[in-house]
Specification:
Layout (H helix, E strand, L loop, with lengths): L1 H18 L9 H9 L18 H12 L11 H4 L46 H8 L11 H10 L3 H7 L9 H12 L7 H6 L8 H12 L16 E3 L7 H4 L15 H4 L7 E3 L21 H13 L5 H12 L7 H4 L12
Antiparallel strand pairs: 1-2
Helix pairs in contact: 2-10, 3-7, 3-8, 5-8, 10-14, 13-14
Length: about 350
């Protein structure tokens, strides 16, 4: 983790050295595009594992399972509860609600583009979207099944066996929690949201407004791109939240009983001192439409979040103009909601009794 922190800090230093020679007043759109392409990449066409595409049957099954609630122990919770089409794949709550109304200890980020991130969850304790989907089944806060067998029994009673047989032909046990994970992962890997920023990175200099391009230049020059870079504009590394001060002094974050105090990030899983207050760097795609912000949803407004990040991570007090400029750029990261996500599918109703 110390290596990750050092790498982010070095990026900020090198960026500052490289970029201060060109002011925004002097920079051209082509110069800005060159700078941007050194730091960011447009979204890929697909997010398949090793570029191997799943079958359409697997993707469709995953779509149904994503919105299915009756696999949970209370029959009311599914992936779509925390990752709602109405809220750009998030849920607008500071702390999401889990099974039987239990409050989850962290904010639910958008599911869009998440398959491209370095890991899942703020602490990175799930290595992939498939891993996250499987482990959620027996999480006491998520689906609430006591065993994987219990989850498989629920899916069988719901009438999903023929759908699993179609999606995973020739397998001796097609309906399994492993295939549940594969199917949901296949669907989530289709949830990419290309935005105006991607068109700009590909050479369309008119894809972003003048205010957004000025904001991109500000975003880079202030050092934000030291950690928020790459294809998802963040989400590719872990970093201490609160380099220059304790994060709760700026966010107003409360102590939580489940953590016996402050949320210490990866430390809550690893128990290693060097992981205290280390969190996955958030991706910034669709950030303008997915409030509230940070791991605990403690900040409601994007301009406040930008100002706080400047103070805590860069040791800078950004001016109102700089904040407004960065917020304008972040708006260029908003893509369209994928069509396959916008409406919940019709789910099977075969003889299920909870």
């Amino acid at each position: 983790m110390l290596k990750s922190i050092f790498q982010c800090l070095m990026r900020v230093v090198l960026l500052s050295f490289f970029l201060t020679s060109v002011s925004h007043a002097e920079i051209t759109d082509k110069d800005l595009l060159t700078k941007a392409n050194a730091l960011f990449k447009p979204l890929p066409e697909t997010a398949w594992i090793d570029q191997k595409a799943p079958s359409n049957a697997q993707i469709q099954l995953g779509r149904e399972l994503f919105f299915e609630t009756r696999v949970s122990s209370d029959g009311r919770l599914g992936c779509g509860a925390c990752h709602n089409p109405a809220f750009y794949g998030a849920d607008s709550l500071s702390f999401s609600q889990g099974v039987s109304g239990k409050k989850l200890p962290r904010n639910a980020p958008t599911v869009f583009n998440t398959a491209l991130l370095v890991a899942q969850h703020y602490g990175g304790n799930r290595v992939s979207v498939e891993d996250q989907a499987k482990q959620a089944l027996t999480s006491a806060l998520a689906y609430g099944n006591k065993t994987y067998q219990e989850a498989e029994d629920r899916m069988t009673k719901l009438g999903y066996l023929p759908k699993f047989e179609k999606a995973f032909p020739g397998q001796s046990k097609p309906l399994s929690v492993d295939n549940w994970a594969v199917a949901i992962g296949a669907f989530e890997r289709t949830l990419l949201t290309p935005a105006p920023f991607d068109r700009f990175l590909k050479g369309d200099l008119k894809a972003m407004s003048s205010a957004q391009k000025k904001g991109l230049d500000t975003f880079i020059n202030t050092g934000c791109a030291g950690c928020h870079n790459g294809v998802t504009v963040g989400g590719q590394a872990f970093q201490k939240f609160g380099i220059t001060a304790d994060y709760w002094t700026e966010t107003g974050s409360e102590e939580l009983e489940i953590f016996k105090g402050r949320d210490k990030g990866r430390f809550m899983d690893t128990k290693k001192d060097e992981d205290q207050f280390i969190f996955k760097v958030s991706q910034l795609r669709n950030v303008a439409v997915t409030p509230p912000y940070f791991h605990d949803g403690s900040v409601q407004k994007l301009d406040d979040a930008v100002l706080i990040m400047g103070k805590l991570q860069l040791g800078k007090t950004l001016s109102p103009d700089e904040v407004a400029s960065i917020v304008a750029f972040l708006g260029s990261l908003t893509g369209d909601i994928p069509k396959q996500f916008s409406n919940a599918p019709k789910l099977p109703v075969m003889g299920y009794k909870n």
